[in-house]
Amino acid sequence: MSEEKEITIYDIARHLNISPTTVSRGLKDHPTINIKTRKKIAEAAKQLGYRSNTFASSLRSKRTQTLGVIVPRLNSSFMSSVLAGMENAASREGYNLIIAQSLEQADKEMENVMTMFNKRVDGLLVSLAHSSDVRHFDVFFSKKIPVIFFDRVAPHPDSTSIIIDNFTAAYQVTRHLIMQGHKRIMHLGGNMLLNVYSERLRGYKQALQDHKLHFDEKLVITGNLTEECGTDVAKQLLKLKPKDRPEAVCCANDTSAVYCMIALKNAGVNIPEDIAFAGFNNDPISRVIEPNLTTVNYPGYNMGQAAVTSLANHLNGDTNITDTNTIVLRSELIIRASSGKRK
Amino acid sequence: MSEEKEITIYDIARHLNISPTTVSRGLKDHPTINIKTRKKIAEAAKQLGYRSNTFASSLRSKRTQTLGVIVPRLNSSFMSSVLAGMENAASREGYNLIIAQSLEQADKEMENVMTMFNKRVDGLLVSLAHSSDVRHFDVFFSKKIPVIFFDRVAPHPDSTSIIIDNFTAAYQVTRHLIMQGHKRIMHLGGNMLLNVYSERLRGYKQALQDHKLHFDEKLVITGNLTEECGTDVAKQLLKLKPKDRPEAVCCANDTSAVYCMIALKNAGVNIPEDIAFAGFNNDPISRVIEPNLTTVNYPGYNMGQAAVTSLANHLNGDTNITDTNTIVLRSELIIRASSGKRK
DNA sequence: GGAAAAAATACAATCGGTTGTATTTTTTAT
DNA sequence: ATAAAAAATACAACCGATTGTATTTTTTCC
């Protein structure tokens, strides 16, 4: 092979006997450069095997064409859809993604924020570890680097949030269960400091209230919504006498719902005849469990795309994101067998 | 807020009345700089709110502390585990990840390769779209930038592959099915140009041969292993008279196995009594389907960690990866109900 | 105490594009 | 044909850290 030394715009300039400035501008189709010259430059660049040096470029232009992504966990079905959507939009818009996970830990998140800051990302996309405190993003805000929160968001005057209407979604789920004839409905929720879970609880409550059903605090359980969490809840339910058990369980995600169902089924409980179930997310497992799980379709891929697209538009100056407070994506209730009528 | 202008090493130098060189070396604990001076520099840096400019640094040092990752698809359970493992190791080793997906398309992969190349990643981690041709990685090889293939790999003298022993794993699955009394065993495989699927087919064949079972070409189906693919195979099986159906199906992933099972169950076929099943990957859905799916545990998280760790060690000069041809991770057969004995 | 060795610091070039402004070339209008 | 306007190109400073070498300061040792 040849290709030992890197080709720079200076090499191209010398080769064509023009100035590096013209080459630089020519390569990015600057209008003041004659079309013919641009063509010559492009050809020479290809012929010599030129590749642009993004550092030199970023050093001067102060833009990196890179977006930072910080998420609680990478390995969930939902998050992988989000990332796929993000990657798709980013690649279309000419951006790269740097991805890091906070593992739900605030200090890890803070560290990630600083790394992204030092890497000079052009913008940041975040699903929060804890939404209570977002002061560690101030380094971004004070430098006017745009930050978009998605899914797990926190209100902040300088950032945009991309969410679904968790309140309404949970309201619809609960109302559906009520319509099916269930009265004592349990809510299995997550960390109530996170908007997604507190909103879902609120929707649940509101639905009960609107249908004149008593809200019983004992019927609200919060957990980490993992597989174990679902199994534990099942154990608790099994401890109760059948008649004391809730008639339906409205879970804040599919994982906990599914593993709770599995444990109950193994103990001989019939779903939905003895206890009905509903979940959240439309995870693949919701269509494998028997009976199939009623759930809320959570458009992860679209959310990822929307987040990146908004950010890119803002960075390109097409729209100003600071005017946009919140983008709410459409979600929908998917009714399946698990929420069937009571026997 | 204050923080309008960026602080550089020149500002620190001026502030302490020393040279920028000393600041630069001091900041990275260069041994020729007096300990006391280093301390002073660190303090001044903190006080002034200095953040290093990675471009300026990379421009000169020609290292980016960034690794490129190219995968066929981001949104699969397996890949999200891999990424989680990669992110974990990368963050530990002080590297960032730039992630892109090829969507199984060779041209998209080529494009990604060039982007990564231009972004000057220090190394590349790739699971291939098609393993037939890897010439588009030559830009990396000729510049001696390390490339690691994982999962979907292609042999190349200048790169390391990280895989599991697909041959043996498939052999064990097939042998297990044989031991359970199944004789006519179907193999549902993927694109045979990819090492993972061709090796699995090979393992299947070898197991048949070692147990004196006839290999029937008609019992090998290849598809894209998606949900639809599984459903389609079920339809084909249902067209056959029950006695003509295979006694077991050995699938190259869990998704196709599970959706095939679902379709058969809906048609009244009993699993495993009428047809037994085995999959590959240990996807979450394999533990939700009833009966639970016998499968091969595919250590995605470990694979991701191993890939990044090897690459980082190589880049740090701790080990030389070019000596390592292949790293084989342990996988294991997980026996569940779907592969039960024949009635 | 002074020369030699070692340690610490400084100089200055460099990495490769970008960009405001100046200069040259070409086109337009009179 | 020539002045004015427009288009195209070139100059030169700059972005901020790194690094080989030179210089200064400190330490060591006879």
From TrEMBL, chains A, B:
<keyword id="KW-0805">Transcription regulation</keyword>
<dbReference type="InterPro" id="IPR000843">
    <property type="entry name" value="HTH_LacI"/>
</dbReference>
<dbReference type="GO" id="GO:0003700">
    <property type="term" value="F:DNA-binding transcription factor activity"/>
</dbReference>
<dbReference type="GO" id="GO:0000976">
    <property type="term" value="F:transcription cis-regulatory region binding"/>
</dbReference>
<feature type="domain" description="HTH lacI-type">
    <location>
        <begin position="7"/>
        <end position="61"/>
    </location>
</feature>
<keyword id="KW-0804">Transcription</keyword>
<keyword id="KW-0238">DNA-binding</keyword>
<dbReference type="InterPro" id="IPR028082">
    <property type="entry name" value="Peripla_BP_I"/>
</dbReference>
<dbReference type="Pfam" id="PF00356">
    <property type="entry name" value="LacI"/>
</dbReference>
<dbReference type="InterPro" id="IPR001761">
    <property type="entry name" value="Peripla_BP/Lac1_sug-bd_dom"/>
</dbReference>
<protein>
    <submittedName>
        <fullName>LacI family transcriptional regulator</fullName>
    </submittedName>
</protein>
<dbReference type="Pfam" id="PF00532">
    <property type="entry name" value="Peripla_BP_1"/>
</dbReference>
<dbReference type="InterPro" id="IPR010982">
    <property type="entry name" value="Lambda_DNA-bd_dom_sf"/>
</dbReference>
